[in-house]
Amino acid sequence: MIRIVILGTGNVAKHLFDAFLTQKGIETIQVYGRKRSSLIYFEEQTNVTSDFSKIKKADLYIIAISDEAIAKVSKQLAHLKGLIVHTSGSVPMTALASETRRGVFYPLQTFSTNKKVHFREIPICLEAENELDYKLLNKVASAISDKAVRIDSDQRKSVHIAAVFANNFTNHLYHTAQEVCNQNEIPFELLVPLIKETAAKIEYLSPFDAQTGPARRNDTGTIEKHMANLRSQNHKDLYSLLTKSIQSTYGKKL
User: Fold this and answer.
1) d(CA 191, CA 209)
2) Domain end residue (candidates: 134, 151, 168)
3) pLDDT at residue 128 greater than cutoff 60
4) Which DSSP letter does residue 56 get?
5) Which of 145, 159, 226, 248 has the fewest Cβ atoms within 10 Å of its own Cβ atom?
6) Is 75 found in the same domain as 100?
7) Dmax of the chain from CA atoms?
8) Residue 107 has what pLDDT?
9) How far is CA 39 from the centre of its chain?
10) Residue 115 has pLDDT above 90, yes or no
11) Residue 254: is its pLDDT beyond 80?
């Protein structure tokens, strides 16, 4: 039995907790949270605490908190013998206290409250300082995911940057599209099938080959009409910047 303590009570912590609950051979023996009220989600199914001195002995401690608090929290665990990992995409493994056994357990996914995810499909990026600790992480990751991947801190940093482009920036563009719809009294729901199809295409086409639209075609007439129609200067700036980027990408093929 692999005994796990999760430190954190946010979305990542909750989704990991739920994923571990269904696995034989893995037990989340405790969840730590700064505020007692934030532990309500966990307390019916495991031990909870807000006191570092009461953290139980475990094989694996998963720190699932904000990036800026990782180093500070890891120092509170320096006396423990178990493997200590964080779940951040952008924080290096070396941010953890040097006197501990260190590693990274980074699920490459966006997590939201009350939105279930299929962990089997989620890549989990792993890193450890020695092979035995890596094998432990790989065993835990493989219990909940079919995509455990060994990635070092430099690679993970780049993956996180790519994820920001693919997820965070894309979602912001959805928000921008919704603003344009709202300004013109058009239901945003009309775009949902288009969004789904665009996402589905990259399963069999590269993003380069899947690109369509006026910038890809160098349709300057349509581009000028769109720019004239946009009401917000922020929308105009975004449209112009992305159009120039697409034109630059495909410039040699126009």
Assistant:
1) 21
2) 151
3) yes
4) P
5) 248
6) yes
7) 67
8) 95
9) 22
10) no
11) no
Across-strand partners of 60?
4, 83
> Rounded distance, CA 22 to CA 18, Å?
7
Answer yes or no: do 131 and 181 share one domain. no
**Beta-strand runs (E) in the chain:** 2-7, 26-32, 47-49, 60-63, 83-86, 101-107, 123-128, 147-150
The number of distinct structural domains making up the chain is 2
Q: What is the pLDDT of residue 251?
A: 84
Percent of the chain's residues with pLDDT above 90: 92
Check if the beta carbon of residue 191 is closer than 8 Å to that of residue 198.
no
How many Cβ atoms sit within 10 Å of the Cβ of residue 170? Answer: 13
Do 212 and 161 share a structural domain?
Answer: yes
CA 41, CA 198: separation in Å to the nearest integer?
Answer: 36
Length of the chain: 254
Token pair, residue 183, equals 């300004």
Name the residue range of residue 232's domain: 157-253
Nearest CA-CA partner of 132 in 94, 93, 102, 92 = 102
| Whether 106 contacts 129, CB under 8 Å | no
